[in-house]
Design goal:
five-stranded mixed beta sheet; 215 residues; alpha/beta
């Protein structure tokens, strides 16, 4: 999570969506940031408002004045990326070398459900709690990251270049068995609902950041 009070942007860091690369690119422009452990780094926008209410309660720093953005991945691509990352990288909670995706899915660990048993969804980072509205200006679809990030940086008056950081070393394709696709799509239905709205959301949000550039 990064906040720039000068450039007035707020970046919400989703998991497995190049968030480390974006942090490296924008860190010098941020005066408030949360990096390190996943619990510190990957907090939702409603948590950001709560933690930094002293800042956002000031008229000059009302949330509407900030350009709020993050990155989202197609849900099956996102969970398969988590699987590949924990299989191939040096991580705190590695998966056994022989574990299949189906076994990983069946164990329903913290990548799939929270300790309280709730679904671990990407939308929780970008929306108000309890199925509330989207609180972001732009949620970049992962395949469009480079082009949209470059346009956002230009509009904000920020010079930044994305580098590849924290990449999964195990690059196997099609790790999710076909017979699980319907089950996973049903599980991630709330994320798919958001995913399908990104074009509409981003049209409005990108118009906002373009106006910011003109102003």
């Amino acid at each position: 999570m990064l906040i720039s009070t000068e450039k007035q942007f707020l970046f919400v860091a989703n998991t497995k969506t190049a968030s480390t690369s974006i942090e490296h690119a924008l860190m010098e422009h941020a005066d408030i940031y949360r990096t390190g452990s996943p619990a510190r780094k990957h907090i939702g926008i409603h948590q950001v408002y709560h933690l930094y209410d002293v800042l956002f309660s000031q008229p000059a720093h009302h949330p509407d004045r900030y350009f709020k953005f993050g990155v989202m991945r197609e849900p099956l691509d996102w969970i398969s990326s988590w699987f590949r990352y924990r299989k191939g990288n040096q991580v705190a909670a590695p998966l056994p070398a022989e574990m299949t995706f189906e076994a990983f899915w069946q164990q329903q660990d913290w990548n799939i459900r929270t300790p309280e048993g709730w679904k671990y969804l990407q939308r929780h980072l970008f929306c108000a709690p309890a199925g509330g509205p989207v609180l972001m200006d732009v949620i970049i679809p992962y395949p469009q990251l480079e082009a949209m990030f470059a346009e956002i940086c230009a509009a904000l008056g920020v010079k930044a270049t994305l580098s590849r950081q924290n990449v999964s070393t195990w690059q196997a394709a099609d790790v999710i068995p076909t017979h699980l696709h319907d089950e996973l799509r049903a599980f991630y239905a709330p994320d798919y609902q958001l995913w399908e709205q990104l074009g509409e959301i981003n049209a409005v949000g990108m118009a906002k950041v373009r106006r910011q550039k003109q102003g």
